[in-house]
UniProtKB/TrEMBL annotation, chain A:
It is a lipid-anchor. It is found in: Membrane. This is Spore gernimation protein GerC. One of its GO terms (cellular component) is membrane. The lineage of its organism: Bacteria, Bacillati, Bacillota, Bacilli, Bacillales. Gene3D superfamilies: Nutrient germinant receptor protein C, domain 3. It comes from Paenibacillus campinasensis.
TrEMBL record, chain B:
It comes from the Bacteria. The lineage of its organism: Bacteria, Bacillati, Bacillota, Bacilli, Bacillales. Keywords: Membrane, Transmembrane, Transmembrane helix. The keyword Aminoacyl-tRNA synthetase does not apply. GO terms for biological process: spore germination. The keyword Cytoplasm does not apply. Pfam families: GerA. PANTHER family: LEUCINE ZIPPER PROTEIN 4, SPORE GERMINATION PROTEIN. InterPro entries: Spore_Ger, UPF0353/GerABKA_families. Belongs to the GerABKA family. This is Spore germination protein. Coiled coil: none annotated.
């Protein structure tokens, strides 16, 4: 009995000791990849990885610090992405660790050729989490973006990551598109994906130099550049700021943003949107063809009034709401038409709406939706409510009645 | 005494004549210098008063004999037997008086501080309770101090301790059973319970276990604790101990049984449940809502004390992807240049801390201060600056140590300390997966434990709603009563 017990204990202990700590990796054996950039190359892919330089991070600079920069970007070429990543180890002293990837950037050229094949590696690799953002380097190569030193956030990948978060929330002209979202929209029949674009403001040469961030106004900065429209997995074109906002309105991705409207008597008023909901209704017209109606519910606050208005009168507010509604109706419709005619990519997910609301009808259109989408009728119907007009009532420039 | 049982039995009856008596006593006690013989004459009969110097003081007995002399003044000759009887029945003014007819009986009385009166030709001796051992007074309890609540702590004297409890529970149902345990030490051990409140099965079980104890010596209550605990090989204590009379009183009122051991201020309480080790007597002296939060905090502290280092090891060596990215960048920077794996790093720090702690307890109080200062410096600043350990690890070890001290019962803190190292080893080889397996095994072990036949995890498993009012939380005073009794019936 006691012999048996001892045997069991010895076996358990040897399991613990002899297993050799399988898959154990110490923190200081890792090269944490913060950002990956993928570009085209004649021999396959050129992959750049922005890797954390551990001795330069941490709250307190430790003794092993050499005053170098907090990240290093390695670039290598391979037939496939894993091949290129592996070749990076000819330069990097530690194993690349992909779990903490913050952003993945495609070069524009690669995006135009199609990102489908690279997506396979990215979604197949178990190390990658799903919370990083996908970006396209507008008019350039992804490696350029990863070579620029950014001010403020000392790790450029973090800087990109948090600027996407905040600009999506406050500005609404960018997209925080994660792997999951991109693939869902890519594989779904009735929709096409969009990705947010980044570009360099300034030259790469200056951006590489640490002197760049020692200025109050750095010469080179990374800037968001609207949305990239994809058809299937290929980039087909770019949307400017107001069109990008339009797309985000329809996709229900607007949290807060700012807009402006001309007043009745000249001048301009700015408003801040703090709630925007849109729903797509698909219905069939008398010929049995699908048509769409976009219902938008928008709540806004007046934030600046640069015209003569009597804001204490409800009629003025109602009139203002009406004008903003008209503005939304025409603009959003215009943006949709632009995407329809220019790219024919259903980034708004109208096909998906039809699929959900009229599954039987959808079967007829599913195979040639790309063509049908170009001509489909879409009506926009916005409903705007102004909730607050701020801390003062009358505009500062409003003429005061002399007593 | 008992080794010479064969010979002893024949001679155990007391002899009639004084010289024979003196010879026999000297024979048995080996002419110890601390035995005091006071030869007197009781009428015409020679007599002797016998006591242990320091244990007893026969001044009251001598007084009585003086009274006795006055009593018989001018009454003519009396037999020694008459005078002996009058002494016993009338003139001795002490409360505790008795007669012993055998040597072993007499020795027992003598060695516990009584004075013995032998009168030639009577054939038995009188003993009187003249104990006068110098004792520590009732002082403030040092091990379980409270902010609000009684300050008294038990002393080393059994009788004083039982009296301290009786003072709190003035109830005729409060019962005391006393016995002697220890072949060599003959230590007084008392069981205290409240008849009607305490569960009969538990009491029977305890009596059975107490009777089965075979010990040479009992110098502290732990001797008894180890003999009556349900499971010998468990890191968790199944017997509670306290040096506070109010804690014992409240346990008795909950239907538990207290075991007093002469010579130690630590009183055992059975059955002891897991939840009990997270309760402090002060919980009942403070407002219920506040006490409930404190209790939850203590469970949290147990978790921290048990798991923090292993969690840190597991996360940083196996599951880096679970860390928030900003935390990872910070930790990775700290670990840069540390030559050891996280497990070894943690082990170094934990062992250093355990050494400091042990040293701090054993050292004279005046040096203890400086040890803690040096220790803090060693553990903290210096180790990090030397690049031996990372700053994060220092924080982990410190919070673990502090959480450990926050536990109200010292012995459950020891459990956390021991298991911490086991968990660290598991986490270092199997990561969080191993830790979960370890915790499951721990949970199974805890649920399989019993204390005096009562499930250790009672009120959690088996679950009882009634019990929840005074387990994780402390809701009201009234619901506290009798819950143990309801536990089993």
């Amino acid at each position: 009995m006691i012999g048996k017990r001892i045997l069991v204990i010895i076996m358990l202990v040897s399991v613990t000791i002899t297993s050799g700590c399988w898959s154990r990796k110490e923190l200081n054996e890792l090269a944490v990849v913060m950002a990956l950039g993928i570009d085209t190359h004649e021999d396959g892919y050129a992959v750049s990885a922005q890797v954390l330089n551990a001795s330069e991070t941490g709250a307190k600079q430790n003794s092993s610090s050499m005053g170098s920069l907090p990240v290093i970007t390695y670039t290598s070429v391979g037939k496939t992405i894993p091949d290129a990543l592996q070749r990076m180890l000819s330069m990097a002293p530690r194993a690349l660790y992909l779990s903490h990837l913050r952003v993945l950037i495609f070069g524009e050229e690669l995006a135009r050729q199609g990102v489908g094949n690279t997506m396979d590696f990215i979604s197949r690799n178990h190390e990658l989490r799903r919370d990083f953002f996908l970006l396209v380097a507008k008019g350039g190569r992804a490696s350029d973006i990863l070579e620029v030193i950014t001010p403020f956030e000392y790790i450029p990948a973090n800087s990109l990551f948090s600027s996407i978060l905040i600009s999506q929330k406050r500005w609404a002209a960018t997209g925080k598109i994660t792997l999951q979202m991109f693939i869902t929209e890519l594989k779904r029949d009735g929709s096409d994906p969009v990705l947010s674009g980044v570009q360099l403001r300034g030259s790469v040469q200056q951006g590489r130099n640490v002197e760049n961030v020692k200025k109050i106004q750095p010469d080179t900065m990374i800037q968001h550049a609207g949305l990239a429209v994809f058809k299937r997995d290929r980039l087909v074109g770019w949307l400017d700021e107001s069109r990008s906002k339009g797309v985000n309105y329809i996709l229900n991705r607007v949290v807060t943003t700012v807009g402006d409207i001309e007043c009745a008597g000249g001048g301009v008023a700015a408003y801040e949107i703090h709630r925007a909901d849109s729903t797509t209704h698909a219905h069939l017209n008398e010929k049995g063809e699908p048509e769409f109606r976009l219902e938008m519910e928008i709540e806004a606050n007046l934030s600046a009034v640069e015209c003569a208005m009597k804001l204490d009168s409800p009629d003025v507010i109602t009139d203002l709401e009406k004008r903003i509604e008209d503005r939304f109706n025409t603009n959003i419709a215009k943006h949709i038409r632009y995407v329809q005619s220019e790219y024919g990519a259903d980034v708004f997910g109208f096909g998906e709406a039809l699929h959900r609301q009229h599954p039987k009808v959808w079967k007829k259109y599913r195979d040639n939706w790309d063509e049908r989408f170009r001509t489909v009728q879409i009506q926009v119907n916005a409903n705007v409510a102004i909730r607050r007009i701020g801390s003062i009532v009358q505009p500062i420039n409003e003429e005061v009645d002399e007593p | 005494m008992r080794q010479t049982d064969e010979a002893g039995k024949k001679l155990d009856h007391l002899p009639d004549s004084l010289p024979q008596f003196m010879k026999e006593v000297n024979n048995r006690l080996g002419e110890s210098p601390d035995i005091v013989w006071r030869e007197i004459a009781l009428g015409s009969a020679p007599a002797v008063i016998l006591y242990m110097d320091g244990l007893g003081d026969p001044i009251d007995l001598l007084e009585a004999i003086h009274q006795d002399w006055l009593f018989f003044e001018g009454e003519g000759e009396q037999t020694p037997g008459d005078r002996y009887r009058v002494l016993k029945e009338r003139t001795i003014t002490m409360g505790k008086v008795g007669e012993a007819a055998t040597f072993s009986d007499m020795m027992e009385k003598l060695l516990s501080g009584n004075s013995i009166l032998f009168v030639d030709g009577v054939g038995s001796v009188l003993y009187a309770g003249t104990e006068s051992l110098k004792q520590r007074g009732v002082e403030e309890a040092t091990s379980q101090s409270v902010v609000r609540g009684p300050r008294e702590g038990f002393t080393e004297a059994l009788r004083e301790n039982t009296a301290l409890v009786r003072r709190r529970i003035q109830n005729p149902n409060l019962r005391l059973e006393q016995r002697k345990i220890g072949e060599q030490t003959n230590t007084q051990v008392a069981i205290m319970y409240i008849e009607g409140l305490c569960h009969v099965d538990v009491l029977e079980e305890l009596r059975r276990r107490m009777d089965a104890i075979e010990l040479d010596s009992v110098l502290e209550s732990n001797y008894i604790e180890e003999m009556i605990q349900d499971q010998k090989y468990s890191p968790f204590p199944t017997v509670y101990n306290s040096e506070r009379p109010d804690v014992v009183a409240s346990a008795l009122l909950e239907g538990r049984i207290a075991i007093f051991v002469d010579g130690t201020p630590f009183v055992l309480i059975v059955p002891a449940l897991f939840a009990q080790f997270f309760q402090s007597s002060e919980d009942y002296y403070q407002r219920g809502d506040f006490s409930s939060l404190l209790r939850l905090l203590r469970y949290l502290c147990f978790g921290i004390a048990l798991l923090t280092p292993s969690f840190y090891i597991g996360i940083t060596t196996f599951h880096q992807e679970m860390l928030p990215t900003n935390l990872l960048t910070s930790l990775i920077g700290q670990r840069e240049g540390v030559p050891f794996p996280a497990f070894v790093e943690a082990l170094i720090m934990e062992i250093t801390f355990e050494i400091l702690r042990e040293a701090g307890i054993r050292l004279p109080k005046s040096i203890g201060q400086s040890v803690s200062i040096v220790g803090t410096l060693v553990i903290g600043q210096a180790a990090v600056e030397a690049g031996l350990v990372s700053a994060g690890m220092v924080i982990v070890v410190s919070i673990t140590a502090i959480a450990n001290f926050a536990l109200p019962a010292f012995n459950v803190g020891i459990s956390a300390r021991m298991l911490r190292f086991v968990m660290m080893g598991i986490a270092a080889s199997f990561g969080l997966y191993g830790m979960i397996i370890g915790l499951i095994i721990l949970g199974l072990h805890l649920s399989s434990l019993e204390s005096m036949g009562v499930p250790y995890m009672s009120t959690f498993a088996p679950f009882s709603w009634r019990g929840q009012k005074d387990a994780l939380l402390r809701l009201s005073q009234r619901t506290k009563k009798k819950y143990l009794r309801k536990l089993k019936s």
